[in-house]
Amino acid sequence: MDFDLVIRNGTVVTASDIWESCDIGIKDGTIVAIGPSLPVAPGAQEIDAEGAFITPGGVDAHVHLSQFYEATVGVDIDHSIITNGVVPNPENFVGDTFITGTRSAVAGGTTTVIMFASQMKKDESIITVIEDYHKLTKDQSYCDYAFHVIITNPTPQIVENEFPWMDIYPGDFEGAKCVCSPPIREDKSNQDSMWAGVKNGTFTIVSSEHSPTKFNHPNGKQRGLKDGNLPYGKFRLIPNGLPGVKTRVPLLFSGGVLSGRISPQKFVEVTSTNPAKLYGLKKKGSIAPGFDADLVIWYPQTKFQSFNLTNEMLHHAVDYTPFEGIEFKNWPRYTIIRGKVVFSHGEVVGEMEYGQYIWRQKSLLPGPRDVWLSEWRP
To answer: What is the mean pLDDT of each run of 10 residues along the chain (378 residues)?
Structure first.
């Protein structure tokens, strides 16, 4: 058969099944065949998965990149900064750009991110905001991407004239590193409840909420110490959010699958399949003929040496990780986007301009059931 790439001898995982000793045939960036011992014509590239898990590329549905607001530039902003595709004043920008954030994403097995295009409270248009985000992403992304739009000023002009255009469908200051919402719970019973929620379907997806700001920068987390608020700082001044776009997939795999808390199928469901379905990315999030060849090949478990994470191992632009010292029992060996290897054995090997914008369609997940499972009401 005529393939560009064949992945041999993998344990293929979808949200519903596991197929052992399986091959995946890829042509023109798309999965075209799945089965044992696929015949291949001379000249096709082959990768031996050595029996390791192959999962769909991760879809991270909540990511903040190249966002210019108070938490990343250090000053109040009520109008969007129109960049025309160039990051303004980069030495004072304390977040991740599209370049650094998507580079980090592919290094952790995420192949598609859905980022926020944010309207500021006095912007008179959403269209100009979205157009500028497209300029910021053009040839600046290592992975595929789509947008959410944050609307803060829904004027009559925007509602009547722009919504149809968008096709919308209905103790120690070190603790500042972990300021986020909802706040981190330290008690093990809370952690156990969250794992139970992932397992029993309470949580439809697991995203990173990657919203980083540097710690050792006056416009970053250190803003909590301005005006001499020593030694603990003022909580309300600390920029909210954590980095996590690279660690989301390996954390769920190591802490969930390899610990026995969740099945490999549930891992795929919450990290890839459901995010793609929920946000209308119909060719993403699964391993089947006709889907984009977005794949993660893990290490054979018997050949992987566990390690404790340090920030120096990551590819983001931030000077810390909240997961410093956490043990990882596996990590993506290859990340593949549309049939092309973009991460291999610890190195980003893809080109920055390879990422493509993905037009979102209607959600493919069922709508609300109007049935409450408890007495709690949002």
So the answer is: 94 97 97 96 94 98 83 62 78 86 96 92 88 90 93 85 64 77 81 92 93 86 75 76 93 97 98 97 97 98 96 91 95 98 97 94 78 56
* Angle value at C-alpha 332, between 178 and 259, nearest 5 degrees: 65
How far apart are the C-alpha atoms of 147 and 125, rounded to whole Å? 16
| Residue 136 DSSP code | H
CA 176 to chain centre: 23
Closest CA to 102 of 140, 149, 50, 151: 140
Report in angstroms the alpha-carbon separations of 57 from 14, 212, 226, 295: 11, 22, 41, 4
Residue with tokens 């008690």: 187
DSSP letter, residue 261: S
- Alpha-carbon distance 106 to 76, whole Å? 32
CB 94 within 8 A of CB 126: no
Q: How far apart are CA 10 and CA 334, in angstroms?
A: 13
**What are the angstrom distances between the C-alpha of 79 and each of 59, 137, 241, 250?**
30, 20, 22, 37
Handedness of CA 279, 347, 309, 213 (dihedral sign): negative
Residues whose CB falls within 8 Å of the CB of residue 158, separated by 6 or more in sequence, listed in order:
124, 125, 126, 151
CB atoms within 10 A of CB 122: 11
Could you tell me the pTM of the whole model? 0.89
Q: State the pairing for strand pair 5-13/45-48.
A: parallel
Look at strands 110-118 and 58-63 and give their pairing: parallel
